[in-house]
Amino acid sequence: MTATNLYRIRPAEKSDARAMNSIESEAFPDLERPTKFRRELQRNDVVYLVATRPWTKEERDAARRGERSNNRQPATADLVGRAQHSLEGLMFQALGLIGKNLPAEHVGGFQGIWFALDTAHLTVIASRPDERRKGIGELLLMAAVELAMHRTSRTVTLEVRASNEAARALYRKYAFQDVGVRKRYYSGGEDAIIMTTPPIWSKDYIAHFSLLTRKFEARWGESHRVLI
Ligand SMILES: CC(C)(COP(=O)(O)OP(=O)(O)OC[C@H]1O[C@@H](n2cnc3c(N)ncnc32)[C@H](O)[C@@H]1OP(=O)(O)O)[C@@H](O)C(=O)NCCC(=O)NCCS
Question: Which residues contact ligand 1 via a Cβ below 6 A?
Fold first, then answer.
C-alpha cells in the first residue's frame, strides 16, 4: 500500500494569510512591503494554494505551554508571551484557549498563480526554511501545473533570480526552460531569468509530468490536491 503524504494542497483561505506572510518574510527577506494576502485572496485572476499538514502533538503542546512553535503567529505568540506569567495566562491555559488559538492546520508553503490569457504565471512559491527538501516545493509546483491544465493554459511561466539555484533546479525538473532575461530586474540589480514550460497539453509534456508525479508519490506518498 502506498503511504500518504503528510502535506496536502488546497486553495488558501483568509485564515491562512498570517501564515503566508510569515513564510513570505522568511523566504524573501529583501521584500519591501509584505503582501496583503487577505486582499489578494479576493482577486479572480490569481489563485493561491497552500501546502498544509496537521499540527503535531509536540507543536500543540508547545503552543499550549507558550513556546514559540513554528506557527509563528505574532498575535498568538504575543498573547502567549504576555500570558505566561500572569493569572490570566493560567486561566487561558486551564481553559485550553491558547491551544485553540492555533489555526486548524500548519501551513508549510504556498504559491500564487496568475492566469492571463493562455498563460499561467507563477508569481510566488515558497516553503518554510525548516521544512525545505521535504517535497513541499515540488508538491506545490505539481499542483500549479495541474491547475494550469485544468484552466486550459498553454504554458506556465515565471521569473526567478539568476542566483536562485534551488528554485531553478525545481523548475528545470518540471521542464521549464530559460527563455529570456530581464536585466537588473530585482533589488540589488540582479537579473531575472524568465523560465517557461513547453505547451503543457503536448503529448511529451504530459508523459514527462505523469512520470514525475508517479515518482514523487512513490517517494513522498500519495498526495491529496484540491485545486478549486
Ligand atoms: C525553491 C523552494 C520553493 C523549493 O522548496 P522545497 O520545499 O525545498 O523543494 P522540494 O523539497 O520539493 O525540492 C524539489 C526539487 O527542487 C530542487 N531543489 C530544492 N532545493 C534545492 C537545493 N537547495 N539545491 C538544489 N536543488 C534544490 C531539486 O530539484 C528538488 O528535487 P530533488 O529532491 O529530486 O532533488 C524553496 O527553496 C524556497 O522556498 N525558497 C525561497 C523562496 C524562493 O526562492 N522561491 C522561488 C522564487 S522564484
Answer: 27, 125-127, 132-138, 158, 160, 164-167, 169-170, 173
